[in-house]
Amino acid sequence: MKAQPTASHYINGSFVDDDRGAALPIIYPATGETIATVRAATENVVELAIEAAREAQPAWARLKPVERGRILRRAADILRARNDELARVETLDTGKAIQETLVADPASAADALEYFGGAVGSYNGDYVDFGGSFAYTRREPLGVCAGIGAWNYPIQGAGWKSAPALAMGNAMVFKPSENTPLSALALAEIYTEAGLPNGLFNVVQGYGDVGAALAQHPAVAKVSLTGSVPTGRKVLGLAGSLMKHATMELGGKSPLIIFDDADIENAVGGAMLANFYSTGQVCSNGTRVFVQDGLHDRFLDRLVERTKAIRIGDPLDPDTQMGPLINKAQHEKVLSYIDIGRNEGAQLRHGGGVPSLQGFEGGFFVEPTVFAEVTDNMRIAREEIFGPVMSVLRFEHEDEVIGRANDTEFGLSAGVFTRDLPRAHRVIADLQAGSCWINHYNLAPVEIPFGGFKQSGIGRENSLAALEHYSQLKSVYVETGDVVSPY
Ligand code: NAD
């Protein structure tokens, strides 16, 4: 299996390499084999990318928003036309099951390009009337923006960051995760094919040090990171010290609350979506599943029954529902949390082991895992595991569960399953989380803002809120009378 890209970086409309950069092996998580090698960006490559972006941005910003939008919408069409090929690249890079990447990854990036390409033409400033004299506000681009991606949704992340940035008239230098460098390069080529002028979307590869170089570069006006909370603290520190704009999409340990009266099949399906999609590597996952006493035992029985039926294996087989974790380190981390859960006294109801899969012995697979009788202070209920490990906790009363759900440093997401609509809205209003669901989980359509409260981040991706975060406001006062001056 090979997936070698033309070159490591994409700068000013062309592939670029610099052999002095450290080799970065790209490993297929299902087998452990190396399918490509790219080079980390050297200082020189970072400078080239930023310079290309800086050169290209002013002319791009002067285009009419609808003209910029047209190019983005053309790129969305190309993404959709190449969906299957891009889904395969994403599966090779991430190990996620092809049945997911075919519907979720390039498609979500295309949605972002289409949405922002259309929305930006109507995203305007305000007019303020002073009875003759007046003022207006302009939404202006920031300049060169840096995007730093995580490995769980590589092309989606590149699309979610670049689309609002470019639509608003900015240029972007994007650094994918070192684990998943491939699909951002494909997106860069697609932008060029769609007519995006050279230099507006550049891709540089590398580890955290390349991300840090972008975050602290004086020519970069904004940094948008998707990653863990510890990385977010570092990047926000760098950006803050230079007064840069920042969007931080970070981790979580989100609560999913299931009341007695919930439809059991929907609640079980929602909890599984909230824990097992993308092999549990989703930032917004509802990994603390609180189930009310009256439904608890029936819920668990049905959950275990349905979890047993999950098909795990070859990610390229369209029947496979769960692929491996991203890499060896994540595999070890998830297995160690399963041990921690056992040692803490949680009841292992399903999974917990490494499945034996012929032909995939070198892969980073772990069984979908369900722990019951989890209590609030266990580490598996407090720390982000980022794998298919669900913790089920019992609760009795509404007030009690709200307090327990909010007792976390994170605040990315939350969900509620109930047929009692007043209760659903009351509970959601009290939960400290930025992205919430009632009677579903983990849907993230581009039309609604996505992002976290508390340690889970600042700023928002998607929706018009993202255009706000990729722009700055200028106020212009216009005098129509004489200047009244005391001098
Ligand atoms: P990570 O924090 O290890 O890395 C994220 C990115 O930051 C990578 O590109 C990495 O190279 C870069 N990076 C690392 N150190 C850096 C530094 N000092 N300066 C600049 N850049 C640096 O995260 P990950 O392991 O790739 O992804 C998993 C994490 O991301 C989880 O915590 C998950 O919850 C979170 N996540 C959040 C969202 C969201 O939208 N809120 C979405 C997906 C993933």
TrEMBL record:
Residues annotated to bind K(+) 2: 454, 457
Residues noted as binding K(+) 1 in the record, renumbered to the chain: 27, 93
Residues of the active site: 161 (charge relay system), 249 (proton acceptor), 249, 283 (nucleophile), 461 (charge relay system)
Cofactor dependence: K(+)
EC number per UniProt: 1.2.1.8
Pathway named in the protein's UniProt entry: Amine and polyamine biosynthesis; betaine biosynthesis via choline pathway; betaine from betaine aldehyde: step 1/1
Pfam families listed in its UniProt record: Aldedh
GO MF, one example: betaine-aldehyde dehydrogenase (NAD+) activity
InterPro entries in UniProt: Ald_DH/histidinol_DH, Ald_DH_C, Ald_DH_CS_CYS, Ald_DH_CS_GLU, Ald_DH_N, Aldehyde_DH_dom, BADH
Keyword field: Metal-binding, NAD, NADP, Oxidation, Oxidoreductase, Potassium
Binding positions (NAD(+)): 149-151, 175-178, 251, 283, 384
Record PTM Cysteine sulfenic acid (-SOH), positions in chain: 283
Function: Involved in the biosynthesis of the osmoprotectant glycine betaine. Catalyzes the irreversible oxidation of betaine aldehyde to the corresponding acid.
Cross-referenced HAMAP family: BADH
Protein name as annotated: Betaine aldehyde dehydrogenase
